[in-house]
Design goal:
5 helices, 2 domains, 181 residues, single chain, alpha+beta
Length: 181
């Protein structure tokens, strides 16, 4: 009988120790998340992304392709304004991301277009302005991918053909919690 009580007492003590350990661990995680959530949002393109953007523009120009960056960093407010188009404001839906849900809001995305031979901005994915028999758009995408960009045209659900991003292995949820590349 005494052995059973002793074993029962050891089990309770082990349960208490494990519970305290888990509580301390949970509290530390909460404190880390609270600190990260205080991390301010960026106000410009990430330095690496800006460098790769410039290389992209230069390499495309070397092929006779004139690329225009039509969007880069976007504030949460600007993102919400875009999100409202086609919903609470007139126009077509242009994004499925609310403020804080886009890599643009963290300086990690750009949108591009092409300049045609007349100098007009176009989003024609078949255009071959340099006359080499290849789509200029896809040539730009190929250059971008070689530089480490992810292309929105590869996405399974929502295709965003002008969109290029570098997530540095971070999800939107991690960025929202304050993690930064």
């Amino acid at each position: 009988m005494k052995k059973k009580r002793k074993r029962h007492g050891s089990t309770i003590m082990m349960f208490i120790i494990i519970s305290v350990f888990l509580l301390v661990f949970w509290k530390q995680q909460q404190e880390k998340e609270n600190e990260l959530s205080k991390t301010p949002l960026p106000t410009a393109l990430h330095e690496t992304l800006a460098e790769k953007r410039d290389i992209l523009l230069s390499q495309a120009l070397d092929k006779g392709i004139h690329v225009v960056i039509v969007e880069g960093f976007r504030s949460v407010e600007e993102q919400n304004d875009l999100y409202n188009k086609g919903r609470t404001e007139e126009g077509n839906i242009v994004t499925h991301a609310k403020g804080g849900e886009s890599y643009h809001n963290y300086g990690l995305a750009i949108d591009f277009a092409l300049l045609n031979n007349s100098g007009a901005t176009i989003w024609d994915m078949e255009y071959d302005g340099n006359g080499n028999g290849k789509s200029d758009w896809m040539e730009v995408v190929s250059i971008a991918k070689s530089l480490g960009f992810e292309w929105g045209g590869d996405w399974a659900n929502f295709k965003d053909y002008p969109h290029l991003q570098m997530d540095f292995g971070l999800s939107i949820a991690e960025l929202q919690k304050g993690q930064r590349p």
